[in-house]
Each structure stands twice: as C-alpha cells, then as structure tokens.
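User: Please fill in residues for this 273-position structure.
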C-alpha cells in the first residue's frame, strides 16, 4: 500500500481493530499515530501494533493525510472543534466511524475546507474480516476516496453507499451485526452444554460452524435459502430445528431487532447532530 499517513483520534476497540488489521496487511506502523487521553487505551493499542501514541489530538492530526475519528459519538463535537484549527488548510480528509453523526455536523464542527467521509465498520476488521459501508460527500477528492477505500479494504469488505441515509441500514446489518451472531452463538454454545458437551467443545463447534456457514454464504456463489435447503435432509433433524425457529418467528424477531438498531442510529443522529 502506498504510504498514507493516518492519525486515529481515539484508540479504543474500533481503532485497535482497524490498526491491527492494517498492520497485519503490511501497512507500516510508522505511518500510523493514535491519540487518546486514556493511558490504558494507548497501552492496549501498543500491544496490537507499535504505532506512535500520544494524548494531544492536535499534534496527532498535524501532517496526516487521513484523520480517522474513532471516538464515541457523545464526545465527537468536542473533539472535532478542538482539532479544527490544526486541520485547517492541511489537506487532510476526516473519516468518521461514529454511529449516527451526520456529515453536516462533522463539517460544521471541523470547519470549511475539511472534506468528510463517513464509515460504518465492524470489529472483525481486527482479523481482516471486517465489513464497512462508506459514504463520501462531493467535497472529497478521488484520491482521498481512494485512500479511505484502501484503508478499509485492508481490513475487510468495503461497500460505498450513494446516500448518507443508507449508513443507518449498514449499521443495522454489519456495524452492529457481529453482536447478533455472538448472541446467537452464545445461545447455541449454552444449549450444546446443556445437552451434554463440555464448554470448550460446545463453543468450538459453534464458532467453527458459524465460520463455515459464513464462508459458504460469502464464497460459494449459492443463495442463502438454497444453502439452508442443502443442510435440511427431508424428514431429517435440521428440518425440525428450522420449523421450530420459524414457528417461533425468527425472521420477525430479527426484523424487529434490526429496526430497533436503525431507529437508535437515527435517534443518535437527532440527539448528537
Ligand atoms: N465497537 C464497534 O463494534 C463499532 C463502533 N463504531 C464506532 O466507533 C467509535 C468508537 O467506538 P469504540 O472503539 O467501540 O469505543 P471505545 O470506547 O472502545 O473507544 C473510544 C476511545 O476514545 C477515547 N476518547 C475519549 N475522549 C477522547 C478525546 N477527547 N480524544 C481522543 N480520544 C478520546 C476513549 O478513551 C476510548 O479509548 C464510536 O463512535 C462507535 O459508534 C462503529 C462501528 C462498530
Ligand atoms: O453499538 C454501537 O453504537 C456501535 C455502532 C455499531 C456497533 N457498535
């Protein structure tokens, strides 16, 4: 990857996931810096990759090509207003990964002349298995768009969306999505134990099954419903389990959860924007 100087503001879970993935992909750690007031966050990050760390956000953004805003939505306004003078005229693009914060707010806080990209990534970025939705305004140059795409592609799948509003749906699908699968796996592993397996075996079988199913969904070129049908031997065991899920309205349960997620994303935009 061409050397892009990347500054992370906020060195928590998501920053560590993206930095870990970037460095594992061969992006030089020497071109990455991270700023965070929490010594604990910085120490955890240094265990992931030997990047430059500090607590001065303005210093971190100076000279960066891409500034990744990786703080919680609740502190984003304060952080942006604080770094705005250091970004002015520097030519950097700001890339926010915060849920719910609209581009218009980021532009207002960062000041004129700082192009903004919004991204909704997810934590499997740590393993290079992330999934990110990105949205850029017209003020973002083709080169800056390419930089953002290169960074996020280093840690997984990237899809650009044409409308900022679509990022709410991306959040409901892939941003929050890993947690849905963890919850589902927790339930499967717990039931596996109740049915007699030891905890390690139940968890390992569950995780590997999820991984295998996900790889088939992503790589086989076969539709999801067909993949499911191929596991269901007529009159067999899976058919019984699927019938039980369907009579318990699994699809409606999933739809309600994702609708709640999307509603919260919109609510956050209203509260914090
Ligand atoms: N965790 C996830 O799965 C995903 C999170 N996001 C978004 O990523 C952002 C970060 O989330 P996490 O990494 O999970 O949170 P986190 O709490 O792990 O990390 C946030 C970091 O920001 C630091 N921070 C607080 N005030 C700061 C300041 N003034 N300057 C610099 N750093 C400051 C905190 O000390 C902390 O280390 C959020 O906006 C969230 O919406 C997006 C997609 C997925
Ligand atoms: O729960 C959240 O608000 C963040 C955004 C997507 C995943 N985690």
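Assistant: Residues filled in for all 273 positions:
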């Amino acid at each position: 990857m061409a050397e892009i100087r990347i500054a992370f503001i906020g060195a928590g879970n998501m920053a560590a996931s993206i930095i870990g993935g970037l460095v594992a992909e061969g992006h030089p750690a020497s071109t990455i810096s991270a700023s965070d007031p929490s010594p604990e966050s910085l120490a955890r990050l240094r265990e992931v990759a030997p990047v430059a760390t500090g607590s001065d956000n303005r210093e971190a953004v100076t000279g960066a090509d891409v500034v990744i805003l990786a703080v919680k939505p609740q502190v984003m306004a304060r952080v942006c207003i604080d770094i705005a003078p250091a970004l002015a005229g520097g030519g950097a693009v700001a890339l926010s990964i915060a849920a719910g914060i609209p581009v218009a707010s980021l532009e207002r806080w960062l000041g004129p002349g700082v192009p903004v990209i919004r991204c909704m990534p997810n934590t499997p970025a740590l393993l290079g298995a992330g999934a990110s939705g990105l949205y850029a305004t017209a003020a973002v140059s083709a080169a800056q768009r390419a930089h953002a795409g290169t960074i996020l592609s280093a840690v997984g799948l990237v899809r650009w969306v044409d409308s900022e509003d679509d990022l709410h749906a991306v959040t409901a699908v892939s941003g929050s999505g890993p947690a849905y699968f963890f919850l589902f796996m927790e339930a499967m592993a717990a039931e596996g134990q109740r049915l007699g397996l030891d905890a390690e075996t139940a968890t390992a079988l569950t995780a590997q099954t999820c991984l295998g199913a996900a790889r088939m969904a992503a790589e086989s070129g076969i539709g999801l419903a067909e993949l499911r049908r191929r596991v269901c031997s007529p009159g067999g065991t899976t058919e019984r389990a699927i019938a039980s899920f369907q009579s318990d309205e699994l699809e409606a349960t999933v739809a309600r959860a994702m609708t709640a997620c999307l509603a919260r994303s919109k609510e956050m935009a209203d509260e914090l924007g």
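For context: Residues 9-15, 35-38, 41, 57, 70-73, 75, 79, 97-99, 120-123, 175 surround NAI (ligand 1) (CB under 6 Å).
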